Amino acid sequence: MKLPAAPFLLLAANAAQAHDVRQHAPHVHRQATVDLALDQGTLEFALQAPGIGILDFERPPANATEQAALSRATALLKGGSWVTLPTAANCRLASSDASAEGFAATAAVPAAGQHRHAGFTANLQYRCTNPSALRALVVRLPVLFPGLHEVIVNSATANGQDRSVLSADNLRVVLAP
Question: How far apart are the first and last CA of the chain?
Fold first, then answer.
């Protein structure tokens, strides 16, 4: 069954707007957003997270330890280990990327009394040979990064659109009843 493109275009537009919001308006500390789309055998994730939720700072790294933490966080987000999929779905990571924005030493210094904003983005794309087995999945971000108190997952699948709010006590996203 071929799904209409509208839900996926909506998610893409939301992701683009989320990026604009990061640049032009205050972001919510300790809260990340994940947009998830499942279209036949392709499962995609788009993550936006504040630096303070991932690293506990939003400025250029002050020393080698902080630089290593920044590198580790970016690598972990790119590697996809923050998502656990059902084995029966037989999914394989097809592409991934992650970036940290606003942590460079050349980032603009905020005006007096204002706060610097930095954050992370990550995109994962999986190919699944048995997508009907994707009834639920686990997003482990609040456990891997305790500074993220809440992760909002917006999903679009053949079953419709949904929103899940995750915390360290609730990591499960239900995609099908």
Answer: 19
Classify residue 34 as exposed, middle or buried by CB count within 10 Å of its CB (0-12, 13-18, 19+).
buried
Label residues 135-151 b or e (16+ Cβ within 10 Å = b): eebebebbeebebbbbb
**CA 85 to CA 133: how far, in whole Å?**
9
At 128-165, the pLDDT tens digits run: 999 999 999 999 999 999 999 999 999 999 999 999 99
Would the CA dihedral through 132, 141, 121, 174 be positive or negative?
A: positive
Burial 74-92, CB ≥16 within 10 A → b, else e:
bebbbebebbebbeebebe
**Structure tokens, 120:** 């992370």
